[in-house]
Structure formats: C-alpha cells, structure tokens
Amino acid sequence: MKLQILGCYAATPRTMTNPTSQVLEVKNHMFLIDCGEGSQVQLRKHKIKFSRINHIFISHLHGDHFFGLPGLVSTFRLLGRDKELHIYGPKGIKEAITLLLKLGDSWTNYQLYFHELTSKEPEVIFEDDKVTVETIRLSHRVYTNGFLFKEKAGERKLNVEAVEKHKIDKAYFQNIKNGRDVVLDDGTIVSNTELSFDPPVPKSYAYCSDTGYKPDIVDQIKGATALYHESTFLESEAHLAVKTKHSTAMQAASIAKAANVGMLILGHYSTRYKSIELFKEEAMEIFPNVELADDGKFFEF
Amino acid sequence: MKLQILGCYAATPRTMTNPTSQVLEVKNHMFLIDCGEGSQVQLRKHKIKFSRINHIFISHLHGDHFFGLPGLVSTFRLLGRDKELHIYGPKGIKEAITLLLKLGDSWTNYQLYFHELTSKEPEVIFEDDKVTVETIRLSHRVYTNGFLFKEKAGERKLNVEAVEKHKIDKAYFQNIKNGRDVVLDDGTIVSNTELSFDPPVPKSYAYCSDTGYKPDIVDQIKGATALYHESTFLESEAHLAVKTKHSTAMQAASIAKAANVGMLILGHYSTRYKSIELFKEEAMEIFPNVELADDGKFFEF
C-alpha cells in the first residue's frame, strides 16, 4: 500500500499547510480520502493522474475535509472525463454537489454516483475481488466515518520445488494456489501445505479523522498495518480536544497500542503549534512506531 | 484605487495559476471580487487582512469564480470574525452557501447578508458617501454580472490665497467646498470658482468577467480609469470564444477603445497558451494602453 499525503492540517488552508486529503494506492486502485480546499492542486503537484481516481471517500462535511470536492468534480468534467466516479460520504453530500453543479449549469458528462452514508454501525461500502472498504464509526461534532481499507487474502504461492519433485502437471497449479490437495495417479494424496506457501498477510489501512477519543474502534482496526489517527492537539490542550471532539497525540497512540497496529501516522495538527515534532514525542511515550504525516509526505507499507 | 490580482486564469486551478479573484481598495474599502478555489490562501500570501473584507462581489456561479467562497466564509468564522459580511451574487448563492454551512453544522457567528442579483438591467448594489458599485450586464453561459466601482466626486479644494485675499471667515469654508458662492459683508458676491478648485476627477474601475463580446456595455463604462476585461482566447480561437461565450484579446481591446478607458487590464487566460504576452500583442493592435493581469500582480490607478 502506498499513501500520499496531500494535506494534513486542521481548520483553514494556509500558504504552507493544506487541509485534509490523501491518496491510498492499493491493488491498482487510487482511493482519494477526503478533499479539502486546494486538493486538486495538490494532486497536480504530486503528479497523480486524475483519471486514476474513481472512488472518493469523504469522512464528514466540514469544509477542511470537503470544500475541494466541488472543484475536483468540475475539473474532471473540464478534462473530458468519461469514466464513472463514485463518491462515498455522509447524507447531504449529493444535495450539496448537485446544487453547485446546477447553479453553474455544469452537469458532468460522466456518470457521478453518490453513496450516501447514514449507518450508525460500521458497514462495507466498497468491495471487489481484492479489496474491501468499510466505515469506522467516529465521534465528531457532525456525522463522521473513518475508513478501513483491507486487502483480501491472496492466492497461496506455488512451491516450485515440491511440485517438480512430485511431477505434478500444470493443470493442477490453480487448484493448488486455491488451497486444494493433489491426488497423484497412484492414489497418493499430496497435501496442499507441502505444495504451497502461505500468501502474504493481507494489509490494511485504517483512516480515522476527525474524532474524539473513541476506544471502541479498537476491535475493528486490530492489527492494521497502518493507522492514520488524527491528533489535533497536544496533551496540554486535552480540554480543547474534549470540547471540539478531537484527539490528542497521546490518545491516538493509546488507540494504536490497544489495536496493536504496525504503524501509527499522526496528522490533522492544529496550526497553533510551532513544531509537529512535539506530537511524535508525546505519542511515542505510549506507542513506539509513530510517524508524522506532512503535506507531500509519502508512505509505503 | 489599488487592485491586487489574486488569480486571473480560466477554468481549473493549477500549481502555478489561480482561478479568478481580486481585491480592489478604494476609499478605505477592500472589495473582494470573485473568489475561485484557493482565494483565501492567495489573500494570506499577499498579506491582505481578512478583517478588512466586508463586501464580496461574485460575478457568476461557475466554480472558477465561486468555489473559494464557502471556505472563506468558514475561515472568517474560525478566525472569530464578528463584523457583518455582505455577499453580492446571482440568485442561488444564498442557498448554496447556507446549505454547505448547514451540512457542516457550522453557522457563522457573524451576520451574513446575501444580496441576490436577478436584474436584467444594470443596478446600483452598493452605495455610501464615497463610492457606488453598480452591475454591468454581461453575456455568458449563466447569469453573469460585471461590476463598476465608481468614486463619487469629492469636495472642491479651497483656494487658500483667494480666501485670504477676500478675508473670508472659516465659517464659510465648508460651504465653499460644497460649491457655494460667498456674499461678503458689503454685499459683493465672490463666485465659488474664484474661491475653490475643481476636485480630483473621480476614478472608476470596470470589472468584466466572464463575457462574450458585448459592445452594449460601452456607454456604461465610458471613460473608466481602468477596465479589467476577460480575454480567454486569442484571435486564432475566436470560434471557441463565440461557442463558450468568452472574449478574445482583440474584442476586449475593442471595448476598451470604444469606451475610451484609461487602461485595459487583460485576464482570464485559457491555460492552453504558452505565453500571456501574446494577449497583449494582439490587444495593442487596437488599443495602446494594455496591461496583463497576472497572479500576484498589483495595479494602482
């Protein structure tokens, strides 16, 4: 999985800091996650082909996660897009985007599908043969979902040596990859575990922004390869985190620790702080493997 | 009058080019004219105090003139604004902005006044003791207004020498500035033209974007100190200008010439062209005093 951070700062776009947006590349998909104002320029800056984006996931309808979407939808049209586009987000997102397109008399030439979310429980909102995406219910001032991107378990890997030793015909290879044993001509059964290796462990990425401290998400994101968790505040402003339904770096780290994730990526920093290194320092008191998101930063896991 | 160009390129925001927005400073007002995506970042970049903006004029509801407005309105709230804000734009602008604020549960703390425009004739939409703003009816794919910003004629200037010569008491000075004659104690009438000088010629700025070629605006903008007129295309793409209801640089220059304006500022360039200098060259074949708008450029007139 490859994660390109386009923006990861809270509240208002500034000269040097962009509101939330990121692109996750997984199994040939380019999933756009949130779309603050200016995201389309960030996409250009990081040379991400607009045509590769077919699914956009919006966590909630605050401006810093969403006000770049009307412009992106319009730009897709101006660039002559014809592929369909799927937008997943809270109820109301369809009304907002369609009203803006209507007022500009700028209907898209391509098919635009809105998948409006209202469920109070996690739900699978995208699935193909390689990936699922499910919502993570978060706690914010408005209806908000995180998203859990999960690879499906792949095929088992052929043990070439073992296959040759037993002189097994090619015709059986797909069955072996699918986990089946092989019965030889003389009736001997060769077990699948002898003929193949376990597939790579499927990876997963949990995106949790914006949210107050919400430990009941731990079960769902347990063992995630990477967790992006918002940390708007440091511990000294924990009272503001409660008041505004955001998290501190330490709270994000507590979630990471309890869920035993591979890596914690912090982001959604309030711009009140001089240095984002402080977020890492505080989080590492609780959880060791902490990375700091920053605009333009790229992660591979 | 001082004009700060924040963005002046057509269609989609790009890494190096911003969609339309500009700030006109006149008689202590900072009028924001159009507000494409990213305008709030451009305002910060050019160090324009957000608190000085109290009136925003939106020409039409295409994204490249308007999609920065929801974010700016939200940012004003986050910055703790309490002064009222007036927004002038086509009917529908209120519904759009209020829907977005409602979905984010982010009502402004300050008073937000919408002045929705529907008239098919030019109308005065703002007036105080020093300035008027009237609409210029343009011809585009959706309902679009330009704006004519006009200083009012100021007071006459006292001719100090003449006043002293006639030993005229201070009490009469305001009357003289207002254009009145003075009757001396002996009954002599001293004419105002002897006691005062003409005030400076009031300046005016005409903003015309977006529009197809529309010569019937010439009477209204006659003699304007400066005219900003869109020139999306060069003459080689005149057929596209007709089709999309935009103008060529030569058409903009024809308007400038017929209206006998002091200066023509070109802008709203299609990003298809390698150099914007070509726009100036073509326009100068028709009208001599042509300037090119560019992002970040500043004009004083």
Describe this structure in words.
The structure is a homodimer of 301-residue chains. By secondary structure, chain A is α/β, with parallel strands linked by helices. The first copy, chain A, folds into 2 domains: 2-154 and 200-300, Metallo-beta-lactamase, Chain A, CATH 3.60.15; 157-197, no CATH class. Helices cover 24% and strands 27% of the residues of chain A. Chain A is built from 10 helices and 18 strands. In chain A, strand 8 and strand 9 (145-151) form a beta hairpin. The longest helix of chain A has 11 residues, at 93-103. Chain A is globular, with a radius of gyration of 22 Å. The N and C termini of chain A lie close together (5 Å). The A-B interface holds A 11-15, 37-38, 40-41, 44-45, 60-63, 66-68, 70-71, 74-75, 78-79, 90, 92-93, 95-96, 99-100, 103-106, 141-142 and B 11-15, 37-38, 40-41, 44-45, 60-63, 66-68, 70-71, 74-75, 78-79, 90, 92-93, 95-96, 99-100, 103-106, 141-142.
